[in-house]
Amino acid sequence: MTEQPELPLRNYDELPITSLRHQIRSLDDAELRVLVAHERAHAARAPVLELLESRLARLREGAHPAQGDQAERSERPESTSHGSAASAQSAAKPRGPLRHGVISHTPPRDRP
């Protein structure tokens, strides 16, 4: 198995296109070409390829990579340190379906 080159963006394959649009602004021509090759070889998502190739074209026309690290913020929510407030005691009692959608037509088999 051949080792894949490290991608310039962390968690690239999991990024939504809206985040990718902002994060590729700091990449140079060579880094974008790595992403284009990776995308073509793996997912081949047309909107992503279009976005990457459009950015490459802008760089070739004279645009400069943005300063700073565009990937500083995480797209994944931080894990919470506490559990859910829901419990078995606070859950609704199981009920059968209403007969014809009307409570008065439903026998009291599992109604309170």
Description:
- The protein contains 3 helices and no strands.
- α2 packs antiparallel against α3.
- The longest helix has 15 residues, at 46-60.
- With 112 residues, the protein is an all-alpha fold.
- Helix content is 31%, strand content 0%.
- The chain has helices spanning 17-23, 29-41, 46-60.
- The model has no long low-confidence stretch (mean pLDDT 80).
- The chain has a domain at 12-60.
Write the layout of secondary structure elements.
Blueprint: H1 17-23, H2 29-41, H3 46-60
Pfam families: DUF8129
Protein name: DUF8129 domain-containing protein
Biased composition (Low complexity): 80-92
| N-to-C SSE string, H for helix and E for strand | HHH
**Average pLDDT score:** 80
Which ranges are low-confidence, i.e. pLDDT below 50, for 5 or more consecutive residues? none
Overall shape: elongated
Number of strands: 0
Major sheet characteristics: none
Helix content: 25-40%
